[in-house]
Amino acid sequence: MSTGEAAKRLLALCRARGFKIATAESCTGGLVAGALTDIAGSSDVVDRGFVTYSNEAKQEMLGVTSLTLERSGAVSRETAVEMAQGAIARSDADLAVAITGIAGPGGATPGKPVGLVHFAVAARDGRILHREQRFGAIGRSVVRSRSVVEALRMLMELARGPQQVKPKRAAVSRLRPRVVRTPRRHALKRRSRTPRA
């Protein structure tokens, strides 16, 4: 499925379910938001997009903690999850996707090769999904385009999940509660009926 077709299907599903989307992108630099907003009429689904390329932007715009960045690094499960949660918290969206990775050709570190990308999608009802992809050194543009497809796929997966149903207000009964008379009450009534001497 092409990126355009995947974006159209996601928009149609979110429109039918009344969902809004936010994006939080690092290595893709806004390409997911671009794929969605390329389609006319997407404004009723797309709420906003955050391009947080630097660590400072991730902290300031999405609330990723400095501790997470120090311990796990920008390209990690922990950072991706905090980015997605931050996008939900700082938007009116019901679903958010976050992408952070190493598109290349440079930037690799021990244990984190070129082509490593972490994805996280979060829903306002608390559901979170994380995925790690190791695309390999297949070229910067290919890593980025494949990341867009994966992000749209994950959003679709979360959008298909359970929709929160607002609890119905409990109906107020108009019937009067039945009074159960205790034996003691009967005894008091009987005494009151006995004639006085």
What characteristics describe this protein?
alpha/beta, 7 helices, 197 residues, Maf protein, 5-stranded mixed sheet, globular
Structure annotation, total helices: 7
Give the overall shape, derived from the CA principal axes: globular
Q: What is the share of helical residues?
A: 40-55%
CATH class: Alpha Beta
* CATH architecture field: Alpha-Beta Complex
Compute the number of structural domains.
1
Calculate the terminal CA-CA distance, rounded to whole Å: 100 Å
Tell how many strands the DSSP assignment holds.
5
Order of helical and strand elements? HEHEHHHEEEHH
Please give the order of strands in the largest beta sheet: 2-1-3-4-5
Q: How confident overall, as mean pLDDT?
A: 89
Annotated CATH topology: Maf protein
Radius of gyration, in Å, reads 28 Å
Looking at CATH, the homologous superfamily is: CinA-like
Oligomer: single chain
Biggest beta-sheet profile: 5 strands, mixed
What share of residues are in beta strands?
A: 15-25%
| Structural class label | alpha/beta
Low-confidence stretches: 165-175, 185-189
Question: What is the element layout, followed by pairings?
Answer:
Elements: H1 3-17, E1 21-25, H2 31-37, E2 46-51, H3 55-62, H4 66-72, H5 77-89, E3 95-101, E4 116-123, E5 128-134, H6 140-159, H7 183-193
Helix pairs in contact: 1-6
